[in-house]
Description:
With 177 residues, the protein is an all-alpha fold. It has a single domain (46-176), classed as Tetracycline Repressor, domain 2, CATH 1.10.357.10. The protein has ten helices and no strands. The protein has helices at 2-7, 14-21, 25-32, 35-58, 64-77, 81-86, 89-97, 102-128, 138-156, 162-173. Helix 9 runs antiparallel to helix 10. The longest helix has 27 residues, at 102-128.
Amino acid sequence: MEAFWERGYHATSVSDLLAEMKLNRGSLYGTFGDKKSLFLAALSEYERQGRQAMREILQRPGSARDAITQWVVESGRQTVGESGQKGCLGLKAAMEMAPQDRDVADWAREVARQRERLLAKTIRRGQAEGEIDPGLDARAVARYLVTALAGLRVVGVSAPTEREVSEVVELILRVLR
């Protein structure tokens, strides 16, 4: 995962992967089949970790609006400093590969849909609790949040300040008022 994250798919050689994983060529091919299968497995694991962290925040008992706010703020924090400059493996993969690779495009689309569904469910909970405007389309708001935070992650590689990110996070959260 780290090798792909640092170099991207095309710039990561099989030799880089073998060195990173401390495997021989036969073990790599025997376990994953080929470089692309390993890449897709790395993307899936990266997304599993991210979705688990997201789910833990959004499904906590209590205020749905507070949970969404916490998730957005935490996501914003990931765009500052060293982690921000490192960027998001999923977004890097989508930008590098999705235009010419259907598997990666399908993966990226499904990741966005899963995140939207999880957020929309939390938004609907907030609407039912009277914390979030019931006139909002929960699915559209969820799509907006996912899209806005993806954009912020992309901007993170240019080293925005905490204040700059905080200002954007504040604007993103206005949709919930």
